[in-house]
């Protein structure tokens, strides 16, 4: 494990990352989802894709990469891009799970791999709408402390700046970014995913101009049980 200090838009970041197969000539970069870290991606994929230099990154605010700022997804992409420049990465393949898929898309790699990616807006259940409604009322009344009761379980242990970051990114519609992406894309999904639905995955694949879509029996973390097959499909499907 290593750390690089970056300054992006006058903000200072210490980004934790790990490299596997350091002498390989092609790169694959792994970006985790919200609330996760690089270790889950490394534990799942490090045994495969032997012809690639693997770069596993803790996004700011997760794992061992600290963050004291309120960020947007574009900020995350700029930070990762700066790190990859320092690592002399060719961005041959970038694989993103969930929120990491949005960041990966903005980085415009030669080959994009999406694992149950976020980015397609879905209808919110009634109980979620109710929480949002009451949270807005409490904020309007100056009772911000009460809004923590209505926060998503993804962020209930996060600092205030990460909560505000979450608010910035949670309802983004990435359909335009997917439609504008013109390079090769491999889309993988869990058929029992309740965080990002199978229908969203199919829509995402239809928006991407050069994509293949593969689904597996599994939930939002379907790739844990299917890493070998996914890795083989990446090897056979990249440009």
From TrEMBL:
<dbReference type="GO" id="GO:0016787">
    <property type="term" value="F:hydrolase activity"/>
</dbReference>
<feature type="domain" description="AB hydrolase-1">
    <location>
        <begin position="28"/>
        <end position="143"/>
    </location>
</feature>
<protein>
    <submittedName>
        <fullName>Alpha/beta hydrolase family protein</fullName>
    </submittedName>
</protein>
<dbReference type="InterPro" id="IPR000073">
    <property type="entry name" value="AB_hydrolase_1"/>
</dbReference>
<dbReference type="Pfam" id="PF12697">
    <property type="entry name" value="Abhydrolase_6"/>
</dbReference>
<dbReference type="InterPro" id="IPR050266">
    <property type="entry name" value="AB_hydrolase_sf"/>
</dbReference>
<dbReference type="InterPro" id="IPR029058">
    <property type="entry name" value="AB_hydrolase_fold"/>
</dbReference>
<dbReference type="GO" id="GO:0016020">
    <property type="term" value="C:membrane"/>
</dbReference>
<keyword id="KW-0378">Hydrolase</keyword>
């Amino acid at each position: 494990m290593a750390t690089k200090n970056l300054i992006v838009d006058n903000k200072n970041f210490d980004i934790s990352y790990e490299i596997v197969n350091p002498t390989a000539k092609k790169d694959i970069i792994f970006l985790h989802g919200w609330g996760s870290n690089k270790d889950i991606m490394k534990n799942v994929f490090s045994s495969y894709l032997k012809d690639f230099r693997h770069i596993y990154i803790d996004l700011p605010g997760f794992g061992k990469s600290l963050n004291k700022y309120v960020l947007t997804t574009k900020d995350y992409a700029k930070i990762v891009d700066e790190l990859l420049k320092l690592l002399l990465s060719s961005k041959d393949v970038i694989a993103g799970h969930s929120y990491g898929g949005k960041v990966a898309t903005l980085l415009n790699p030669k080959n994009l791999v999406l694992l149950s990616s976020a980015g397609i807006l879905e209808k919110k259940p009634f109980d979620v709408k109710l929480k949002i409604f009451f949270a807005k009322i409490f904020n309007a009344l100056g009772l911000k402390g009460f809004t923590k009761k209505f926060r998503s379980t993804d962020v209930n242990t996060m600092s205030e700046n990460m909560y505000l970051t979450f608010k910035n990114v949670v309802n983004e519609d990435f359909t335009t970014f997917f439609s504008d992406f013109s390079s090769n894309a491999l889309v993988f999904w869990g058929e029992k995913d309740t965080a990002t639905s199978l229908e969203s995955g199919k829509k995402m694949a239809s928006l991407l101009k050069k994509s293949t879509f593969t689904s597996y029996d599994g939930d939002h973390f379907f790739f844990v049980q299917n890493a070998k097959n996914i890795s083989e499909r990446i090897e056979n499907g990249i440009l």
